[in-house]
Design brief:
Bound molecules: nicotinamide-adenine-dinucleotide
Distance between the termini: 73 Å
Strand order of the largest sheet: 13-14-15-12-11-17-18
Oligomer: single chain
Number of strands: 21
Strand content: 15-25%
Structural class: alpha/beta
Length: 496
Amino acid sequence: MTSVKPATTGERTTFDSLDPATDEVVGTFPVHAAADVEAAVERARAASSWWAGLGFAGREERLRRWKNVLTTRSAQLAELVHAETGKPHGDAMLEIVLAIDHTAWAAKHARKVLGPQRRAAGLLMANQAATVEYQPLGVVGVIGPWNYPVFTPMGSIAYALAAGNAVVFKPSEYTPGVGRWLAESFAEVVPEQPVFAVVTGFGETGAALCRSGVDKLAFTGSPGTGRKIMAACAETLTPVLIEAGGKDALLVDADADVAAAADAAVWGGMSNAGQTCVGVERVYVHERVYDEFVAKVVDVASTVRAGSDASAKIGPITMPAQLSVIRRHIADALSRGGRALVGGEDAVGDRFVQPTVLVDVPEDSAAVREETFGPTLTIAKVHDMDEAVAKANDSRYGLASTVFSKARGMELARRLRSGMTSVNSVISFAGIPSFGGVGDSGFGRIHGQEGLREFARAKAIARQRFRPPLLLTTFDRSPKTDAKVAKLINLLHGKR
Ligand code: NAD
C-alpha cells in the first residue's frame, strides 16, 4: 500500500513523495509551516510589483521563454509526472502538451483581453472618454491536486502570471516534485525575483496559504476541501476560484456513431485509471442502440489493462485511500441489482484497478451519485433523450458532459447543466479556452478570456474631454439644469 509519509529529519519536518506503483521514494520535501508560507507570500508580494512593471510585452516575452523550456524539457517533466502519479508516460505528455498550449494562449492574449478597452460613455456622459482595463490582483495562491499535476494548476498559474500577478503554489502532497520542477523551470527564465514560488506540505500548508493574505486563492481538488478553503478564505474576504470534482455523464442518441461513442466512453472513463475530474462516469444510452453500444464498450474495455509495464494502458490508483471508495461503489452497485460486464469487485487490487463496466445499477446508488475516480462506468438504458438529459442533470455536480448525436448534438449539449460539453468527441473542451463547472463542481473559470479575468480586477476610468453643456456633478446645478435632464431622459427612455 502506498502513502505519503511525514518524517522528521533533524529540526525540519519533511515528507516523501512515492512512486505509487513501487513505493520508491521520488523525493523528499519540507512540510512548510504557516510562517514559511507567510514569508513566501511576502517575498512574492515584493516581486509582484516588479513583475507587473514588466508590462504585457515583458511578461509575454518571459512566458514564451518558459513555454520553450517546458517544451524542450517535456520528456523530463513527463518522467517526473509518471514517477509521482504512476500514469503512463504518454498520458503525462498529453497533459503537458495541453498545459504548454494554454500557457502560449495566455501569454499571447493577455494584452488584448486585459488591456484598456474603450467603452461608450452614453449620451448623458458624452463629454467623457471611458475605458475599462484589468489590473493584476497582486499575489495569487494556487492549491492543486495530484491527478493532473501539470495541466490543472497551470490553468491558474500561467493565467495569473500572464495577468501580472505573482504566484505561490501549494501542489498536492502526492506530486510536490512536479510543483517544484515547474517553479524551478520558471526561475530559469525569471531569475531576478521570486515571482512564482512553491510551498510544500499537506492540508495545513494549504490552509495557511488561504490565511496568508493572498489576493485570490485558486483551488482545484475535491468539493469537501473546497468548502474548507472557502471557510478559511472567508475570514479575510479573500476571493476564491473553485475547480472541484465531477460525475460526468455521456449521452448516446439513437442516431449516434455508436462505435465512436463506445470508444469515447471507455477512454473518457478509464484513461488515467479514471482519475480525471472530467472523466466519464455515467452513460445514458437510447434504447434503440443500447445493446449495440454495450457490446462495443465491453469489447473496447476488455482491451484495457492496468499495470506498470510498458504495454499497460492505465497505471495505478495514485491515492491509496481512493481504492476503498472504488471498492465500495462497485460492491454497492452489485448488491443492489447491478451487473458487472467487465471487471467487478475483484478488479480492485492493492494498487491497480482493472476496468469495470456496470449495467442495471439503480440511479440512487453511490456508483451513480458520488465521484468514483476509478476506471469504472455505469451504463443505463433510456427511452428517449429527454430522460437522458433529466438523469444526467440529476446530480449535485456539474463539471462537464459529452453528447453523441448526429442531429441533436448542440441542442442536447445546451440542455445539460454542466460547465462544458463535448459533442461527438470526448474531453475536447480541455484544450479549448474556457474551463469550469457549476454546483459541487465549483465556480469560476480557468483558461481563455474568462481565465485571464479571474486573476485581474476591473478598473474603469472616465476622462473628461470637454466641459459638458449640462454640468451634473456640482452643487451649482440649477433647477433649470434638472428640468433639462428630466426632459432629456424622457426623450431617451420615456417612449414606449
Ligand atoms: P483534495 O481536495 O484532497 O486536495 C487538493 C489540494 O488541497 C491538495 O493540495 C491538498 O493538500 C489541499 N488541501 C487539503 N486540505 C486542505 C485544507 N484544509 N486547506 C487547504 N488546502 C487543503 O483533492 P485531490 O485528491 O488532490 O484531487 C482530486 C479531486 O480534485 C477530485 O475530486 C477531482 O475531481 C478534483 N479535480 C478537479 C479538477 C477541475 O478542474 N475541476 C481538476 C482536477 C481534479
